[in-house]
Amino acid sequence: MFKLGVAQINPELNDLKSNKEKHLSLLERAISEKVNVLVFPELSLTGYYLLDGVAEASLPLNSPFLNDFKKISEKISFSLGMIEKGTDYNPYISQLFFEDGEIKGVHRKVYLPTHGIFEDLKYFARGKKVEVINSHHGKTGMLICRDFMHLSLNLLLYLQGVNVLLLSSAIPVRGLDKEKGFSVKESVEYLLRSLANYLNVYIAFSSRGGFEEGIAFMGSSLILNNYGYIVREGVFLEEDFLTYPVNLEEIYKKNITFPLLRGEDLLMIKENMRFIGNDKPEL
Amino acid sequence: MINLNCELTKKLLINFILDQKQKTGAESMVFGLSGGLDSTVTAFLLKEALGKNVLALILPYGDWTKKDVEDALMIARELNLNYEIYSLDQLAVQYFEDMQVGDRLRQGNFVSRLRANVVFDFSKKLKAIVAGSSNKTELLMGYGTWYGDLAASFYLLGDLYKTQVRILAKYLGVPESILSKTPTAGLWPGQTDEDEMGITYEELDKILYLLVDKRKRVEEVVNRGFADNKVRKVVNQVFASAFKRKIPTIPKLSQRTIGADFLYLKEYRLRDSEED
């Protein structure tokens, strides 16, 4: 058993120092509440719409600014979001996983939405790797916002045997509707319920709140169990803090009664992947 | 079709007001209260978010606005709003006489800009920011006075069509006497929005919603039963009024030009480097 937590925060744009203080105080709170794994939202250290301020707000992974996080990770595992100045001198939207006093894993956002109100690809380079982290609390996968809407990346983590998905987002509220509330929230819930159920994983979805100029971020974070049920839900727009006791034995139980993963044929999948996309594209 | 989730909309707008106050460092907010529907809805939301830290400015011109002034005063009293009332008659009439301005649109625009002057003067006095009441229908149609009623720090109702403002107004408990008023820009006696634009808000909003929110082409909107000439007139008006929705055009000369490739949010601030 371990305790999974979501820190639903409203980061200050480009104010890394005050955001760091907020992270550390929530980590202290989580430790006092015996939380083992805590997830912060996308770009939780920097805010989202940096635009021309991307370079100023970026940090390399070896920055001393991150030392406090390494230190506190001796007591708790957690994932936070920031702009990574890559060793290849490219900026990435990254989620860092801290555990045992070190950065144990980094996920760079792969799918960078660039349409409508999104401009990720204008300012950032794409991540190229999706890797499970062997945490003390199960095989853990991190995906950032648009990433988890692509089934392909979930599949990659699934085939690596992921147990816990840590999903981090900054989702602008849009499509307010009388019946459905707002359309984006409904569609995320559909997706995550299906993922949790069919991938047999626990999901902690950390979604930021607050505003940047006229854009409101939805909050409404979620924790889901491996049967696809929403077991915790954060408030709309504002900050919140969620925790839920996870029992990885439930994953084992479900694998016994509904063995999807061990039915997978990895060789067949790989073989098929070799052919897909080989046709000459129509121009 | 057009509807509104009033509960979530109200929460979002109230949180937005508080966020704007905090991020701009303003001590309060000021706004023009005309006695019409939009500024009344704005008043309800500002009052709920800010309590005492909001000032309504009632700035009448001409004796034909008497009923509106009474309505504005009624709202101010009902909401227990701080307010000031100041007639623009003397200032405006002096100018119209000196410059021999007889054209009613010129007069109306001039008064609208005088109003903006007073509102912004009070904003300086009170270390406040200015809340605008323009709605999405007006903004898309350019139905407002540039640097007049359109001058504001933000448009609280700028993503709500007029028919949605009406839905929200009912939800907020705006009095029936305000809800049933004929919408007017109040630029001259007897002016009404619907007469001037040649279309009812109900029909206009449906057309705009299809064109803008649903990205329908003109032909598709017409196929839904709207008159071809009406739809085309609306489309033309939306694009012809774009200048009112953007910052003034700057001819690009340098490597980085304001509005083109010098891009930051208003709330962006430079901080000390984290690497120091």
Automatic annotation (TrEMBL), chain B:
UniProt GO BP: NAD+ biosynthetic process
Gene Ontology cellular-component terms listed: cytoplasm
Organismal lineage: Bacteria, Bacillati, Candidatus Lithacetigenota, Candidatus Psychracetigena
Family named by the database record: Belongs to the NAD synthetase family.
Gene for this chain: nadE_1
Enzyme class: ligase
Pathway entry: Cofactor biosynthesis; NAD(+) biosynthesis
Species the sequence originates in: Psychracetigena formicireducens
Protein's name according to its UniProt entry: NH(3)-dependent NAD(+) synthetase
Keyword Magnesium: no
Catalytic activity, EC: 6.3.1.5
Domain NAD/GMP synthase: 13-248
